[in-house]
Amino acid sequence: MDRSAIILSSGGLDSTTCLAIARAEGFAPIYSLSFDYGQRHRHELVAAEAVAKAFGAKEHRVIKIDLRQFGKSALTDAIDVPKDRKMGEMTGIPITYVPARNTIFLSYALAWAEVLGVRDVFIGVNAVDYSGYPDCRPEYIAAFEKMANLATKMTVGGGKAFEVHVPLISLSKAQIIRRGVELGVDYGMTHSCYDPDERGRACGRCDSCVIRMRGFEEAGVGDPTKYQVTGRE
């Protein structure tokens, strides 16, 4: 039985753990899909390529689209990335939300899946430490999956349904890290920062960095990230 799968990979902590879980569950071959969408933190694409190679992905593709045309996000527009916020201040939908990003990414994955004959796609969304993004909720994933099974030739023709796997959806960042460590993930390869410097060092101050740092601390695992801020390099 074919157990191939597509993994949406940002090169970050969550998507890399997701890839490790897919492989541990016996999915093979693995296809890795990343996006160069005009994000200010393009260093994540370097990490995504390294992760794909480390995990022996059969193919790693980077789709180039320009979401800067729409903007309205600190990741794709001339808007400052929020920094130095405490966890309690990370409420509501933050300015780092990219409009329709996961819908766009999953749609590309669905198209590639149909071409490859793949029925399983993994995405590392998380509803616990998810920073308020509406397209990281279980309801959203269920809705997209339902739509996908109505929309493609491969699904209306019968056989196995298209499935969006979200193994991290109910885990805290610390739990995700512990799971990854169990599976041998080298988190030194990954990148999470929204505003890295030209050397790819994490700022240590954006919401993503703060959530990542707290996750390692609560997991009791050493943080291998190279940070710009003093004492974390």
What does this protein structure show overall?
The structure is a single chain. The protein is 35% helix and 10% strand. It is α/β, with parallel strands linked by helices. It has one domain: Rossmann fold. It has a five-stranded parallel sheet, with helices on both faces. α1 (13-24) packs across α6 (173-182) and α6 crosses α7. It is globular. It starts with a strand and ends in a 14-residue tail after the last helix.
Low-confidence stretches: none
Question: What is the average of the pLDDT values?
Answer: 94
CATH architecture annotation: 3-Layer(aba) Sandwich
Percent of residues in helices: 25-40%
Query: For the CA atoms, what is the radius of gyration?
Result: 17 Å
Mind sketching the topology for me?
Elements: E1 5-8, H1 13-24, E2 30-36, H2 43-54, E3 59-64, H3 101-116, E4 120-122, H4 138-151, H5 153-156, E5 163-165, H6 173-182, H7 207-219
Parallel strand pairs: 1-2, 1-4, 2-3, 4-5
Helix pairs in contact: 1-6, 6-7
Concise synopsis of the structure shown:
This protein has 233 residues and is an alpha/beta fold. The protein has helices at 13-24, 43-54, 101-116, 138-151, 153-156, 173-182, 207-219, and strands at residues 5-8, 30-36, 59-64, 120-122, 163-165.
